[in-house]
Amino acid sequence: MKIGIVGATGKAGSLILDEAVSRGHEVTAIVRNAAKLTSDNVSVIEKDVHDTNEEDFRGLEVVINAFGAPLGEKDAHVEAGRALINALAGTGIRLIVVGGAGSLYIDDSKTMTVIDTPNFPDIFKPTAGGQSENLEELEQTTNVKWTFISPSADFDAEGKRTGTYEKGEDVLLVNNAGESYISYADFAIAVIDEAENADHVNARFTVVGEKE
């Protein structure tokens, strides 16, 4: 497949890029600084996501939004998400968004989301709020094929690649140890699986993994 990855030099984006390349996909990295790329096996568009347009993505089948906003900036995720919605509108190119866990419900009653729980850290609320707003805009979009993937509450950048994960819809999951956990590496597997299989078009899903 021809896959574009926005934010391909970030913690999540770089692992998603590696996963895509390892499976033989033709990858285009959309990054602000191409010098930070660690892979030579990709095409590059050196551009801020906010400045992208339909022409930048022509010929791609999937665009993965792994844009990472600085901690505390709510609007950054919203504006980056909106830029991609506008660029991909009516093109038929699928948009897969690396989301957050804050918008997930804490149980099947669906009366409270993770971000509204008393112990949710204030420092993460702007980021989680921006990601939640991006999801809301996607849900109101009719001319883009999108998927929003929420990680578990403990999203571990240093965690091992176990090669397995479990999926759910919009309720926070826990693993066999009772932990809401997934490594970035296993999350990357889930992202590329979705790119290949298109199991959740115009929907959000979530994933949980095991610690190794």
TrEMBL record:
Domain NAD(P)-binding: residue ranges: 7-193
GO molecular function annotations of the record: oxidoreductase activity, acting on the CH-NH group of donors, NAD or NADP as acceptor
Pfam families: NAD_binding_10
Protein name according to UniProt: NmrA-like family protein
Species in which this protein is naturally found: Jeotgalicoccus coquinae
